[in-house]
Amino acid sequence: MKIIVVGANGTIGTAVSKELESNGHEVVKVGRNSGDYQMDMTNIEDIKLMFEQIKEVDAVISTAGAANFDDLSELTPESNEVAVMSKLLGQINLVLIGQHYINEGGSFTLTTGVIMDDPIKGGVSSAMAGGGINAFVQSAAYELKRNLRINNVSPNVIEEALEDYGDFFKGYTAVPASKAAKAYLKSVEGIQTGQTYRVYE
Ligand SMILES: NC(=O)c1ccc[n+]([C@@H]2O[C@H](COP(=O)([O-])OP(=O)(O)OC[C@H]3O[C@@H](n4cnc5c(N)ncnc54)[C@H](OP(=O)(O)O)[C@@H]3O)[C@@H](O)[C@H]2O)c1
């Protein structure tokens, strides 16, 4: 399959791209500044242009999506907008626009994260976005046309990211990116839709 991975150069995206390639798929690596194709998923015109320029796509995976990690008392409407525009709407807009472009029987796989189920201090903005994606996926699965499917993967903190995020996730069971990557492969190659694949241990 020809698969767009938005965020392919990141911690999770690198492992996902490797897993897909080792299973014979063609991966088009997309990032803001990295990869085969550059675009910013917070920009609707950028997303449209990407789907017009990258043709005959069978699946879209997003392993991208920013959020601020501020305590609730310090979170402002403005700082919360990072998660709204990127992790929430950026990923959702990939689907709203991409549904009209990708091949029949194709799929979307978005990324959420453990903190939507198991809160951490400072995680409220990212959890909000994850919960929104989760609910979007469940509902959209019923309405997607042309046998398109949609799922999301919710990884625990990733082993390779512990240096950056370890202090936020004391007591959590970190998972290797390669393990999370299997859930994305399952989403792309399997038959399921509307699912949340929780990779928590
Ligand atoms: N790391 C973890 O432990 C963990 C655990 C659970 C869930 N998650 C979630 O998984 C997602 C990815 O995490 P990660 O740690 O793999 O991230 P990462 O290493 O920071 O990589 C993010 C990737 O996404 C791309 N990107 C970011 N914003 C973008 C935008 N607006 N448009 C297009 N591409 C964009 C970046 O491209 P450039 O490099 O070109 O800028 C980069 O390739 C995040 O939503 C995160 O919350 C992460």
Automatic annotation (TrEMBL):
<dbReference type="InterPro" id="IPR051122">
    <property type="entry name" value="SDR_DHRS6-like"/>
</dbReference>
<dbReference type="InterPro" id="IPR002347">
    <property type="entry name" value="SDR_fam"/>
</dbReference>
<keyword id="KW-0560">Oxidoreductase</keyword>
<protein>
    <submittedName>
        <fullName>Short chain dehydrogenase</fullName>
    </submittedName>
</protein>
<dbReference type="InterPro" id="IPR036291">
    <property type="entry name" value="NAD(P)-bd_dom_sf"/>
</dbReference>
<dbReference type="Pfam" id="PF13561">
    <property type="entry name" value="adh_short_C2"/>
</dbReference>
<comment type="similarity">
    <text>Belongs to the short-chain dehydrogenases/reductases (SDR) family.</text>
</comment>
<dbReference type="GO" id="GO:0016491">
    <property type="term" value="F:oxidoreductase activity"/>
</dbReference>
